[in-house]
Amino acid sequence: MATKLISVYENTQKLGAELAKNLSELANDVLAEGGNAVFKIGLSGGSVVSLLSEYLAKVETDWSKWRFFFCDERLVDFNDPESTYAQYRDKFISNLPISEDQFIKINPQLSVDEAAKDYIQKISVYFAPYDLPRFDALILGVGPDGHTCSLFPGHKLCEETSVWVAPISDSPKPPPNRITFTFPILNNARYCAFIATGSSKADILKRILKDGEPLPANCVQPINGSVQWLLDEAAAKLLQEETSL
Ligand SMILES: O=C1O[C@H](COP(=O)(O)O)[C@@H](O)[C@H](O)[C@H]1O
After folding, report:
1. How far is it, in rounded angstroms, from Cα 21 to Cα 3?
2. Best substitution site from 72, 88, 180 to test ligand 1's pocket, by max atoms within 8 Å of Cβ?
3. Are 46 and 144 contacting, i.e. CB atoms less than 8 angstroms apart?
């Protein structure tokens, strides 16, 4: 059963500081195992990129042992501004003592089907053979329709259970061609952090967290892990019984 926590912060500075603290504690815990241990974190695109780039820069950790994966990625060239990797390269890598090699990237030259298969192979190297990957942390966003990763409401990929990473060629949000983690891998993670800031997220957060609508973001419930919703006050304004931190 997933542990679910909703945390509301006065502003994005406090939210960012808390996220950075949580991730550094988790990473340092994983890395304390020694040997070849690496901290495996899945990233999302969209609005979380800037927040992570600003606040993770303050984390004290052995950065050389972090490995960055993509919870979803748009199948476009790395020079295209729609590329999530490109956004991390330009905002995040340039701000932290890390290198491009620490990012496990898709191959945007492949077809969308091949890119998903190729990404499964690339991920597999970091986990025990045949096991469903268990990420240490996943950073997730939520769209105004309740999508997370590239799992959109009503789309057949929400029912996918046989592959960890799936292709999608009809994404309702452009660009249409993407690859995405599916629920089996999301729900096998140790810690999932949803980040939502600003009043434009208020309606969808009410539908998800107050009304309990079965939208994709609400289906992230790690079997043996935790999910934390980190919200600022503007995003949480339609929720009741929230705790301001
Ligand atoms: O297209 C995407 O959208 C979601 C939500 O993005 P946001 O800008 O509304 O926060 C994001 O989590 C996902 O990674 C991305 O591909």
Report:
1. 19
2. 72
3. no
Residue nearest ligand 1's atom 8 by CA? 46
Centroid of ligand 1 to alpha carbon of 195 (angstroms)? 10
Model pTM above 0.90: yes
The token pair that represents 89 in the structure block: 């390269």
Q: Note the ipTM here.
A: 0.97
Exposure pattern of 26-49 as b/e (b: 16+ CB <10 Å)? bbeebbeeeeeebbbbbbbbebbb
HSE (CB half, 13 Å, CA atoms) of 160? Answer: 22
- Strands, E, within 71-122: which ranges? 72-74
pLDDT tens, 104-139?
999 999 999 999 999 999 999 999 988 899 999 999
